[in-house]
Amino acid sequence: MRQIIINILIIFTVSTGLIWISNYIYQIYNQYNIKNKNYEKCLIKKNWITDLAKFFPIIFLITIIRLFYYEPFHIPSDSMNPTLLTGDFILVNKFLYGIKNPINNKIWIKNYSPQRNDIIVFSYPFNKNINYIKRIIGMPGDIITYNPFTKKICIFKKDNQAITLEHNNHSNKLISISNNYKKIIKNLNRNNYKTYYTITLDYYNEKLHHQKHNIIISHGIKNYSFLYYKKLSGLKRFWVIPEKKYFVMGDNRDKSMDSRFWGLVSESDIIGKAQYIWLSINKYQNIWFKKIRLCRMFQKIK
């Protein structure tokens, strides 16, 4: 759907541009004939198409911004909760990582490389028509291990430095997560996950690459190891990240389909970095004037 909109936008811009150029040629031709008093040769064509062409400079500017600089996206699920809520409308910076061909997504001019902790929007590797949004956890050259029982992640960087995401307040860890509070307790029946009757959602503060953000871990739900993505001759819960690949996860760790389940994200599939929330609508709110979350508007995404 996104690619269809891009194609329509390009076709519409090119069409209005051609009409705008033809109008400009008509005007020059008419001015020449008026100057030489050849009034019978003047071409005067007025219709809605020529009127539409007058807006070409504005349409062209919007198209350039939409294709190469910023693109709006909508958050349809809570896999990035609590950082991004269902109903958030965000702006994604496409220029930050480079200028790409809007048709085939090949990089024309490369700017900055994606960094650890960036929240990125990308095309799902197995269906390019679907867009995902996740946080970068692992970088090229990293080795990542994940424990589905303790929910701990360990990252071994290229320089042999180890980064461990702990669920405690150990100050001697490079990355620690401190348990803030238990907030929600839900009852689940047997049909949900077919494993547990109750879960508790715990909020943690995670420090990653000198920046802090909140995540949610569901205690009471065990991640099934057999669902984890595994390369040929590889081990489950163990990922070696090659060049131009990234390991991504959702902040709602137990309600996110991410690199743990379908593999790594290619640099060429990255659309851009999520930077701002420009609108947020709570679809579960019945009172119409309370649907818009004013406190989240124009908020920078961290």
Automatic annotation (TrEMBL):
List of catalytic residues: S79, K134
InterPro entries: LexA/Signal_pep-like_sf, Pept_S26A_signal_pept_1, Pept_S26A_signal_pept_1_CS, Pept_S26A_signal_pept_1_Lys-AS, Pept_S26A_signal_pept_1_Ser-AS, Peptidase_S26
Coiled coil: none
GO cellular component: membrane
Source domain of life: Bacteria
Entry EC no(s): 3.4.21.89
Keyword annotations: Hydrolase, Membrane, Protease, Transmembrane, Transmembrane helix
Subcellular location field: Membrane
Bilayer-crossing regions: 6-26, 47-69
GO biological process: signal peptide processing
Gene3D superfamilies named in the record: Umud Fragment, subunit A
Group of enzyme by EC: hydrolase
Bilayer topology term: Multi-pass membrane protein
Reactions catalysed, as given in the entry: Cleavage of hydrophobic, N-terminal signal or leader sequences from secreted and periplasmic proteins
Domain annotation Peptidase S26: ranges: 54-278
Molecular-function annotations in GO: serine-type endopeptidase activity; signal peptidase activity
Family to which this protein belongs: Belongs to the peptidase S26 family.
Entry-linked PANTHER family: CHLOROPLAST PROCESSING PEPTIDASE, SIGNAL PEPTIDASE I
UniProt-recorded name of the protein: Signal peptidase I
